[in-house]
Amino acid sequence: MAAVLVVEDDPTVSEVVLSYLERAGHTAHGCSDGTRAAELLSGPDAGAIDLVVLDLMLPGLDGLEVCRRLRRSHPDLPVIMLTALGEEDDRIAGLEVGADDYVTKPFSPRELVLRVDSVLRRSAPAAASDPAPAILSIDDLVVDTAAHRVTKKGVELNLTVRELELLAFLMRNAGTAFTRSQLMEAVWGWTFGDQSTVTVHVRRVREKIENDPQKPTLIQTVWGVGYRMDAPDAA
């Protein structure tokens, strides 16, 4: 179904994750070193990888630096970060550098496989029969959901899968305010979880689409509620 690179230095964890992914029908390969992972993800074979499961703590380069470098060369390659239980700063740091999702250790391998499948579904090109519009526009901002492409004034922007999904959802529902829990369920498919995930992604999207992220004119904070896309010229 998909080629997954698992970057994890604990051989037991890596073996279990690889086994569960392969049982689910994926092709899974392991890597135990951050420096080696960065080389693989910047090399000629990177295009054959559909998703990366990336541990935060690694020998060589840590997971944050690997993800940071990956985002420069492959902004739309999905990444699921593995973080330590209870380390909120680590989770937020992973999201800040562009991880699409995270799973906290210790974790259920079945849960990880479900997260992998969820991220892959959302990163797949939209079906031709999808009733949702493939082209969304507000002023000079254009999102092509089928091509996974975002442009502003004709210049292409590098958004991760989750960032694009969040932006597209808000644009489709311009003028409606959503709570963070509603956005988490609609975009991430989670009915529970750390809502700071939404906050971080909104901040990252603003940094890429707003003329002045400190004074946003598109994604507005609705105090006591959540966020709303203001779109006077939405299409």
From TrEMBL:
Residues 133-231 bind DNA. It holds the Pfam family Response_reg. Signal peptide: none annotated. InterPro entries: CheY-like_superfamily, OmpR/PhoB-type_DNA-bd, Sig_transdc_resp-reg_receiver, WalR-like, WH-like_DNA-bd_sf. Residues 3-120 form the Response regulatory domain. The modification 4-aspartylphosphate is found at D55. Gene3D superfamilies: 3.40.50.2300, 6.10.250.690, Winged helix-like DNA-binding domain superfamily/Winged helix DNA-binding domain. Keywords: DNA-binding, Phosphoprotein, Transcription, Transcription regulation. Residues 133-231 form the OmpR/PhoB-type domain. SUPFAM superfamilies: CheY-like. This is Response regulator transcription factor. It comes from Jatrophihabitans telluris.
